[in-house]
Amino acid sequence: IQNARHIEDQILADKYGNVIHLGERECTIQRKQQKLLEESPSAAISDELRENICKDAVKAAKSVKYTNVGTVEFLVDNEGNYYFIEMNTRVQVEHPVTEMVTGIDIIKEQIRLAAGEKLDIEQKAITCSGHAIECRINAEDAENGFTPSPGMIQIYHPPGGPGIRIDSHAYSKYIVPPYYDSLLAKLIAHGKNRNEAIARMRRALEEFVIEGIKTTIPFHKKIMEDERFLNCQVYTHFLDSFEG
User: Nearest 5 degrees, angle CA 128-CA 100-CA 235?
Assistant: First the structure.
């Protein structure tokens, strides 16, 4: 598939056969099939395509009598054709962007559904407000092939302000081990539209201070200025030609 986009749909399902979706996420910017930036909703697909993808995600979950939260993932080509990749039967790293635009606490719903409770949200009640972007802040050197950068964080100062959410376990003097996933923090920006979300993300990235190790903060700053990203012209091979 040439110029593929990675689009996924968040679903919730109970054991009584009720399944709803919470809209889609754009997860196209990635390296080695690992996502680096996600946003919701996708600004690159039509309303018709969005509706079809969401309907098929729900249909797929119902067909196997799936329960609890999950994500149905697709590749989308230039002609608007989409192809099923896989289903992640868990909460994903990028779930906060969906929480920010829908107001639904996905973790809370996961616990309720796992306890056997009935889904108390109807599809018609789900509305998306604004736009959200998540940057994965990893302990990696993006200028050196995203090599791991373990060690001690000397200074850790997270950003704040309107529309900013930070999910992290890091702190000053925290030692990043070399044995596990390099994710340090999820930085999420929400705005009334995509442009405002990008503007808030730029400011938050400027405020985010992590010293002592290499992180992907400088990489994400460059993404936020890239014309292809700003014009929604990115594909899964975007980083192959990224010169930031």
Answer: 80
How does pLDDT run across 31-78, given as a tens digit for each residue?
888 899 999 999 999 999 999 999 999 999 999 999 999 999 999 999
Mean pLDDT of the chain: 96
pLDDT class of 217 with cuts at 50, 70, 90: very high
Please indicate whether residue 203 is annotated as part of the active site.
no
Catalytic residue among 5, 90, 136, 203: 90
How are the residues of the chain apportioned to helix, strand and coil, as percentages rounded to the nearest 5?
Answer: 30, 30, 40
Angle between helices 95-102 and 106-114 (to 10 degrees): 100
Distances (CA, A) of 181 to 15, 46, 101: 33, 35, 27
Among 181, 176, 182, 204, smallest CA distance to 191 is for 204
Question: How does pLDDT run across 159-216, given as a tens digit for each residue?
Answer: 999 999 999 999 999 999 999 899 999 999 999 999 999 999 999 999 999 999 999 9
Q: Residue 22 is encoded by which pair of tokens?
A: 């919470």
pLDDT in tens, 21-44: 999 999 999 988 889 999 999 999
